[in-house]
Every structure is written in structure tokens, then in C-alpha cells.
Design a protein that fits this description.
Elements (H helix, E strand, L loop, with lengths): L10 E5 L3 H13 L3 E5 L2 H10 L4 E5 L1 E2 L2 E2 H11 L4 E6 L4 H10 L3 E4 L4 H15 L14 H15 L4 E4 L6 H10 L8 E5 L8 H6 L16 H4 L4 E5 L6 H13 L1 E2 L8 E2 L3 E6 L3 H6 L5 H7 L2 E4 L10 H12 L6 E2 L1 H7 L7 H15 L4 E2 L23 H19 L4 H8 L3 H11 L3
Parallel strand pairs: 1-2, 1-3, 3-6, 6-7, 8-13, 8-14, 9-10, 10-13, 15-16
Antiparallel strand pairs: 4-5, 11-12
């Protein structure tokens, strides 16, 4: 089925066994210039979807002939260009998460807020009509990167909250921008917020805004960062750094889709898509009591992982020239083979960000329009320290000491966090515990 023709009025299917609600939603959509058709059962909905194309389906989860989740899955497989939002009488995060993971676009709770409904339908129609492809800046052909690119395109269609995990400097914000740019909100604001960079005492006013006179120095109304993303995407970088008190306020905002600026008595509805990221393992933070479990389940509906650069060194042949081109707008500079070889022999604790810094320094030092190996200055790698006098050790002892030193170094780099260290080393937590016991590491 082709995407909805922009010249044709969009058609929406309302699947609910409450005639009064179907009529109310239909009248609301009619005022928006949108045609709607009602169906009271799953089978009736399937018949409608087989007969003609629908841009959007609004679906109740409890129907006389079955569970609405089954229809979500059927639509995803049979009419993938029809976006789906689910209706539920109870604000059940478990059911909503299941629907989103099956392919639902978004969800609404009953009684339906018509303002929220209109916003949701407008986003769905934009998506159904198709969007111009955004420039794909995620460079590389390593299998993990190809999979990540494909996942970005699938996730972009949804409105489900996304959490991006990856080491510092791997490009988590780039991934979030690509999700936004390829989705129905691409023409609305993308607002990045570094949760660890805003002082704790200023977080609430910066995020939620304030009314004039709310506190000393509040000389004018300020909308706040969340409201500035209205209709678009809100990127919460390093969300694990939020204080617990602010986590409570963020949870309420996500649940209610409203905020209350400082000094105001009424709440203001806000329509944004939440994308979060962290270089820390949020599950570990939950286990340690540093991150709320209920907020974790609200944020991590879809989880994505960005691989470190050391795991895809073969992609440097594509990444490095692209970075050089971006850094040299007024001239053309190339990388000599010995420079590329030198770059590919390093392990990049700082990932893409460190590679960019290395190339910027090389551009300053190089003479002419070619960067040579001698222009590449790398800091001494200390990720795998070699034990002294290794030539005196038998091979099994040497390998044991090498493994022990590698694990200790990784523990230091991850602040003693065992779960994060295991992930960093690319092994399961059970394997990591076994190695600690085997090597006598406390």
C-alpha cells in the first residue's frame, strides 16, 4: 500500500464499541477536515483495512471479540503504512508498553483529552503523508552500525520513548537527531538538554519555566526548555544524572503530558516526544537506588545501543575523511595512507569525539593539503598495561596477569561499577563474576 496522497483528505478508522465515543471523536476529526469511519469489533476493523487505505487507526484495547493488541500486530504486518494509536480505560504502563513495542504510534487514556487527540492525529497524518529523507550522517559499514541505521528508521515512525545507551563520545545525540529528523516531528523543534550540566538548584526553573515574580530575579515569564520543544522532540542527555527529586517531577510530566511552571497554579499541556540517553547503565542505577524504577520503565520503552569506536576500527577509513571535510570548510585536505594506518591502530577511549580532536590537532600541525602519519599525535594508551618483566613469566601466568590488569583497569574506568564494567569488556555479568573469582579480585 502506498503512503497517503497529500491531495486526498486523510481517512481515519476508529475502532471502539462505544458509539458515543466514536461519534465524539468523529465530530472532532471532521472539524479538522478529516474523514473517519467507525468499527465496533476487531473483525469489522480488519474488513475496513482490507477494503481501503487508512492513514491512521485509533483503537480501543478492549473489544467484544478480542484484545486490541492483536489488531496492532495485524496492522503492523499487513498495512504498515497505517499508523496506530491505542485507547485504554486505565493508565496501564505495562499494556501501553506492549502496544508500543508491537508497533503502535502512541497511546491515549480514557476519558479522551480532545486537545491531546488533535495533536496526536496531526502528527500521525504528517507521518502517513511521508517525509523527505533526512541526511544520514551515521557513517560506517560495520554490522552494528548498519543495524543501528535500520533501527533508527523503524523507531522514527513511532512516538514511543527511546533510550540510547553508549559510552561518552560515541554519538548518542547524533542518533537522537536522526530519529527526530526521520519522523513526523521533523519540522518541529529538537531541544537537547544535558541533565548533568545544569546546576541542581536551577533544574526545575530551566526545565519547567516560571512566571514573573516566582522568585527573586524572575523579572519576566520564561516558558522553560520543555515547552520550547512543543510539537517536537525533547532529548534528555545523561538522564541518569538527574537528582531524585527532579526524577519525580519528570515522571509526572511524562505521565500527564502537562507541566506546571514555577509560580503558576494551573498546568499547561505539552506535546513532545521523549528521547533520553546515558553513558551509565540505568538498570544498575535502579538497583542502587539512584534512579526511580517507575521512571526507568517510562523512558526505556525502546532501547538502542551505540557501539564504541574501538569495536569498529575498520570504519575509520570512512569516518576520518568525513570529519576532516567538516573541519576544513575552506580547503580540501586528504589523509595519507600512513595517517589512516596510525588512526586505525588506536583504541579511542574518548570514541568519535576523541578522533575529531586528534584530527583537528593534525590539521593545525600538517603542512600543505595532506595529513601524514607524523601529524597524528595519540596519547599513550593505558587500557591494556603490560606487566613488567613479562619475559620471565610462563605463558599461562603472563596471560592470567594480563587479564587481571585489564579487568582492574576497566573497573577503574567505570568507577567500580561491575555491571558497566562487564558491558565495557563485552562479556555477560555472570562471566565477569566468574573471572573476578577465578583471578582473586575482590
Amino acid at each position: 500500500m502506498n503512503r497517503h496522497d497529500p491531495a486526498t483528505p486523510p481517512r481515519i478508522l476508529i475502532v471502539d464499541d462505544e458509539p458515543d465515543l466514536v461519534e465524539l471523536i468523529g465530530l472532532t476529526l471532521k472539524r479538522m477536515g478529516i474523514e473517519s469511519v467507525g468499527a465496533g469489533t476487531l473483525e469489522g476493523a480488519r474488513q475496513e483495512l482490507r477494503q481501503k487505505p487508512y492513514a491512521f487507526c485509533l483503537l480501543d484495547l478492549k473489544l467484544p471479540d478480542g484484545n486490541g493488541l492483536d489488531l496492532v500486530e495485524w496492522i503492523t504486518q499487513n498495512t504498515p503504512d497505517t499508523s496506530v494509536a491505542v485507547l485504554t480505560a486505565h493508565a496501564s504502563i505495562e499494556v501501553a508498553v506492549r502496544a508500543l513495542k508491537l508497533g503502535a504510534f502512541d497511546f491515549l487514556t480514557k476519558p479522551v483529552d480532545l486537545t491531546v487527540l488533535r495533536q496526536l492525529v496531526a502528527s500521525a497524518i504528517r507521518m502517513a503523508r511521508g517525509q523527505p529523507p533526512a541526511g544520514n550522517q551515521l557513517i560506517g559499514e560495520h554490522p552494528t552500525i548498519r543495524e543501528l541505521r535500520a533501527l533508527i528508521m523503524r523507531v522514527a515512525r513511532s512516538q514511543a520513548p527511546v533510550h540510547i545507551y553508549g559510552e561518552t563520545g560515541t554519538g548518542k545525540e547524533l542518533v537522537s537527531r536522526l530519529i527526530h529528523a526521520n519522523g513526523p516531528r521533523h519540522d518541529r523543534p529538537f531541544v537537547p538538554i544535558n541533565c548533568g550540566a545544569i546546576p541542581g538548584e536551577l533544574l526545575e526553573s530551566e526545565l519547567f519555566g516560571y512566571k514573573r515574580g516566582a522568585f527573586t530575579g524572575a523579572v519576566s515569564d520564561q516558558p522553560g526548555l520543555i515547552r520550547s520543544a512543543e510539537g517536537g522532540s525533547l532529548f534528555l542527555d545523561e538522564v541518569s544524572e538527574l537528582p531524585l527529586a527532579m526524577q519525580v517531577k519528570l515522571l509526572r510530566f511524562i505521565q500527564e503530558k502537562t507541566i506546571r511552571p514555577l509560580g503558576m497554579s494551573q498546568e499547561i499541556p505539552v506535546d513532545v516526544r521523549i528521547i533520553s540517553a546515558s553513558h551509565r547503565n540505568l538498570q544498575e542505577a535502579v538497583a542502587q537506588g539512584r534512579f526511580r524504577e517507575d521512571l526507568y520503565y517510562r523512558l526505556v520503552v525502546i532501547e538502542m545501543s551505540v557501539p564504541p569506536l574501538r569495536e569498529r576500527l575498520g570504519d575509520i577509513g570512512q569516518i576520518a575523511p568525513a570529519l576532516v571535510s567538516r573541519l576544513t570548510l575552506d580547503r580540501t585536505v586528504t589523509l595519507a595512507p600512513d595517517a589512516l594506518s596510525r588512526l586505525q591502530a588506536y583504541d579511542y577511549p574518548g570514541n568519535i569525539r576523541e578522533l575529531e580532536n586528534i584530527l583537528e590537532r593534525a590539521l593545525t600541525l600538517c603542512e600543505g593539503e595532506v595529513i601524514h602519519g607524523g601529524d597524528i599525535h595519540l596519547r599513550k594508551s593505558e587500557r591494556i598495561p603490560v606487566p613488567e618483566r613479562t619475559h620471565l613469566h610462563p605463558l599461562p601466568v603472563y596471560l592470567k596477569e594480563l587479564e587481571k590488569d585489564r579487568i582492574l583497569q576497566a573497573l577503574r574506568e567505570n568507577g567500580g561499577n561491575k555491571t558497566a564494567t562487564a558491558h565495557h569488556l563485552g562479556i555477560s555479568f555472570r562471566q565477569f563474576r566468574y573471572r573476578l573469582k577465578k583471578l582473586g579480585i575482590d
